[in-house]
């Protein structure tokens, strides 16, 4: 690479960084004051990253044309909420992605951080009602938010989708020989965090779709299915995908799961 090319590359990077900093420091220039509709918020699971739902949301927006990924929220380890608005003045966001820097934190800390994001959405964009989609531990956190925060002045939940979420814990003992952090402790069968969920009252007006796969060796259908003991039966729907090849991480890359989400959120179908 020649000297001029290197200089051009450096200048380009500086411009991009400058633009990002400007958007972050002066958000009023890029944000609409009021968004209409109910955005769907996606919450990754244990050890999840921006890639956990990133490819799914790319399909939703660019392959299917189901809506736009309006926001990405990053929450730092100390709980600072960083808001990245991708809308560029187009229209109200359909999808919001939350990424937790500490992706191995306890249920309690994770739910607190999720509530901070939703409170920011409420105070900044006047969003008072959302749908939640959570994969693995993210589904447990979404459930905890719905029961603990949604009735306390935070945005309420219209529909909740949980995907491969082990509500009775992860049954594999080998799993905990590798993982031994706060989240792992909460994911153990019989943990205080899981038992606490059983004592809480689930809102009677929230509809729930619970998705499992027979090929999931982390969140096996038996553990996933214990959610039915918490949700009022008239508001509960469960789909177990009979596919031995569809593993835990593959759930958020599955076209079948894509269609189940779309149907439940926007078509009110019973398929």
CATH level-four homologous superfamily name: Alpha/Beta hydrolase fold, catalytic domain
- SS content category: alpha/beta
The CATH C-level class name: Alpha Beta
Spatial ordering of strands, largest sheet? 3-2-4-1-5-6-7-8
**Largest beta-sheet characterization:** 8 strands, mixed
What is the percent of helical residues?
A: 25-40%
Strand content: 15-25%
Average pLDDT number = 87
* N to C succession of SSEs: HEHEEEHEHEHHHEHEH
Alpha-carbon Rg, integer: 19 Å
Number of strands: 8
Architecture per CATH nomenclature, i.e. the level-2 architecture = 3-Layer(aba) Sandwich
Q: Note the total helix count.
A: 9
Question: What are the SSEs and their pairings?
Answer:
Layout: H1 3-25, E1 40-43, H2 51-63, E2 69-75, E3 81-85, E4 95-100, H3 107-125, E5 129-135, H4 137-148, E6 156-163, H5 175-178, H6 182-186, H7 192-199, E7 207-213, H8 221-224, E8 236-241, H9 255-267
Parallel strand pairs: 1-4, 1-5, 2-4, 5-6, 6-7, 7-8
Antiparallel strand pairs: 2-3
